[in-house]
Amino acid sequence: MGQIKVTKCPIDGLYIIEPAVHGDKRGYFTETYNQRDMQENGLNMVFVQDNQSMSSKGVLRGLHFQKQYPQGKLVRAIRGSVFDVAVDLRAGSKTYGKWFGVELSEENKKQFYISEGFAHGFLVLSDTAEFCYKVTDFYHPGDEGGLAWNDPEIGIEWPQLAGEYQGTASAEGYSLSDGTALNLSDKDQKWLGLKDTFKF
């Protein structure tokens, strides 16, 4: 061990991954993934696909989950900064409906592992952000579900974001502290809250 530090989060199934960074005047080198280190920390996931996206400041993507083919995700920001969030959707979990968030940036090089059974989303805090993630299952068209990013029952505290909840997931009236308007896809503004999405 030694190249990757794994820290358990307050919600079981979530982990902060911090790779060792070796730098000098030329730049730096780091191992962004090491299967042996993961396994020594009890993480035996197998990744089948890598994804990458670019988003501008104020973009919020989420909260997304898979219905029939849940994915574990190892996420990181390779440029810029995002606030990344996971919400526990595991039926019977003692932390069901609870959330955990962490800032991921090109500076801190932190990664966030989100096990299967969570909803996921992120807010871009920098001018632009490039976001990479490894997943444990392939993308299945039509399998995506979602939750309202601002559901008061979940109560996510998005940094730098101000606005008043109007009963829907609409971005209208929300902005970052510098005035940048919140930017969501049409689909992400139509998701419902936890109680209306999961009626046990």
Structural description of this entry:
It is a single chain. The protein is mainly beta and 200 residues long. Helices cover 5% and strands 41% of the residues. Strands 1-2-10-7-12-5 form a 6-stranded antiparallel sheet, with no helix packed on it. Strands 9-8-11-6-13 form a 5-stranded antiparallel sheet, with no helix packed on it. A hairpin with a 5-residue loop joins strand 1 (4-8) and strand 2. The longest helix is centred in the first third of the chain and has 6 residues, at 35-40. The relative contact order is 0.21.
Write the layout of secondary structure elements.
Elements: E1 4-8, E2 14-19, E3 21-24, E4 27-30, H1 35-40, E5 49-56, E6 60-66, E7 73-79, E8 81-88, E9 99-105, E10 111-114, E11 118-124, E12 128-135, E13 144-146, E14 161-162, E15 175-176, H2 194-197
Give a short summary of the structure:
The protein is mostly beta strands.
Based on CA inertia axes, which overall geometry fits? globular
Q: What is the percentage of strand-forming residues?
A: 35-45%
> What characterizes the major β-sheet?
6 strands, antiparallel
Radius of gyration: 17 Å
Q: What brief labels describe this structure?
A:
single chain; 200 residues; mainly beta; six-stranded antiparallel sheet; five-stranded antiparallel sheet; 2 helices; globular
